Amino acid sequence: MTCHLIALCFDAHDPLRLARFWAGVLGWETAGDPRDGIALLPADDTGFRIRFLPSREPKIGQNPTHFDLTSTSLEDQRATVARSLGLGARHIDVGQRPEEGHVVLADPEGNEFCVIEPGNRFLADCGFIGALASDGSQEAGYFWSEALGWPLVWDQDQETAIRSPHGGPKITWGGPPLMPKTGKDRLHFDLAPPADGNLQAEVERLVSLGATRADIGQGEVDWVVMADPDGHEFCVMPPG
């Protein structure tokens, strides 16, 4: 049995504002969150919610993970960009080349995301959230494939990608060179053991796959903070 990806979490200075931005971009509904944040519930086959958690930590450097949003046409791409800008996004430069067809934006708290041009073959069978594109190693891709029980759908030239058997976005790792880590990640995954599983047993399984326990100042909590082989944090929540 493998654990489940239950949420992608954003650290946010203003969780409600950021949740409203992404609700407007994605067309998802907001919901209360049992852990002092706010959540968005998927309106498609994404398979996990998005959580926005209060944080006072400043954003330092480029996030190692970002959304790749898909487009069905150039008009659709322009509409997504315009909608995002109207909700508070801005254009940014992360070194993209002029000939590249995607548009790079940042949300109101500076979290990067891309609006991909139509005709992208790699994301052709994905929904609006085509991918969670991650800076990371091949080893990290293998780890997450085993951790979630998601098959590899790409493994070439040290670039890897996995996808749930039930569909939804791909999770990709771009291979070396890796960006330097600049503190606690502002985006992280929340995992949970199977409903009949055991938290400690799942933590031990993840350690056997290459994860480590991590201390981010969480104190006494009922979940476990861990890091993948590249050092990026994630949380394992209690079952139920």
TrEMBL record:
The record's annotation in InterPro entries points to: Glyas_Bleomycin-R_OHBP_Dase (IPR029068), Glyoxalase_6 (IPR041581), VOC_core (IPR037523)
Species lineage: Bacteria, Bacillati, Actinomycetota, Actinomycetes, Streptosporangiales
| UniProt-listed Pfam families | Glyoxalase_6
Which positions fall inside the VOC domain? Answer: 125-239
Q: What is this protein called?
A: VOC family protein
